[in-house]
Amino acid sequence: MSKNSIWRGVIPAITTPFAADGQVDHAFLADHARQMIDAGCTGIVALGSLGEAATLSFDEKLAILRTLVQALGERAPVIPGIAALSTAEAVRLAREAKTIGCRGLMVLPPYVYSTDWREMGAHLRAVIEATDLPCMIYNNPIAYKTDFSPAQIAELAQAYPNVQAVKESSGDVRRFAALRSLLGDRLELLVGMDDAIVEGVAMGATGWIAGLVNAYPKESVKLFELARDGGAKAAAELYAWFLPLLRLDTVPKFVQLIKLVQDKVGIGSETVRAPRLVLEGAERADALKVIEHAIATQPKL
After folding, report:
1. Is 3 a catalytic residue?
2. Hey, which residues does 13 pair with through a beta bridge?
3. Residue 130 lies in a domain
4. What are the start-end ranges of the E strands in the chain?
5. What is the dihedral of CA 11, 213, 55, 163, to 10 degrees?
6. What CATH number is given to the structural domain containing 108?
């Protein structure tokens, strides 16, 4: 692992802002990305699950990447999620991302279709072989119904030098120990579930692909730094305050919930793209209790 790795620190999985007419709000997208880098984040992951990528057209995805690359320049890398219904389209997106100026890729399983390792492995290899950009494998069995085991990830890492990292969102932090046992320091390990950040860092994670950072960038960076530099004890107080919010990242309507938090703290809108709808009724009331308590008890950093 290199000290100059693009995979270390807090890297927001940036939400995709939509205007009232349903179109991507590129001006806010650029400002939001810059705000999070100003707060100490080290890069931006776009077009992920939280970014509602499955609702975006191919051209919209490219336009988002252009906006982010232009907004950040050399300050921080833009790392798009590479996912599509077909392998061919995923390969095309990976190639276009490099042309636009992205500096790494987060490689996902295909949308909708989940299958065995022979087919999934072939899909990942096709994307990885299509680029010389650094790649991070994204393991999220809950969302994508495909679980990449430590042994399978190790197989890719051993075959492809540009596989440099893994985002682990299974919720099982023991996976980090298994990967270290198989590969030593060959891969950077990144936490992909917000409510496992302190535990993940304790198990050797060097980065965090974060969700609630969209609403609380300074607090997210501080929590990561405390966990990294001082361990669980040093992070305990801030973690206790943050944890009810971080758990909003782990439920099916996490996109609506995180955007609602953004709206309530004045860093974005809760507007989502259909088929998602904004929260209402008891579901919304329950979320607002958590959010309003966090706002009222927010610690000074």
Report:
1. no
2. 45
3. yes
4. 9-12, 44-46, 78-82, 105-107, 135-139, 163-168, 188-191, 207-210
5. 20
6. 3.20.20.70
pLDDT in tens, 150-164: 999 999 999 999 999
The question of whether 111 is a catalytic residue gets the answer no
Domain count, the chain: 1
Could you list the residue range(s) of the whole structural domain that residue 68 is in?
Answer: 9-234
Q: Are 58 and 93 in contact (CB under 8 A)?
A: yes
Backbone angles phi, psi at 198, to 5 degrees: -65, -40
Please state, in angstroms and rounded to a whole number, the distance separating the CA atoms of residues 194 and 220: 10
- For the chain, give the mean pLDDT: 96
Alpha carbon 262 to chain centroid distance? 16
Flag whether pLDDT at 189 surpasses 60. yes
Closest CA to 130 of 164, 155, 96, 100: 96
For the chain, give the percent of residues with pLDDT over 70: 99
Catalytic residue among 61, 167, 222, 259: 167
Q: How far apart are CA 242 and CA 223, in angstroms?
A: 9
Residue range 242-267, pLDDT digits in tens: 999 999 999 999 999 999 999 999 99
Q: Is residue 137 part of a domain?
A: yes
Contacts by 111-120, CB closer than 8 A, 24 or more apart: 111/54, 111/83, 111/84, 111/85, 112/85, 113/85, 114/144, 114/145, 114/146, 115/146, 117/152, 120/146, 120/148
Query: Is 203 part of any domain?
Result: yes
Inside any domain, residue 299: no
Residue of 61, 138, 216, 259 marked active site: 138
- What's the N-to-C CA distance of the chain in angstroms? 31
Report yes or no: 171 and 197 within 8 Å, Cβ to Cβ. no
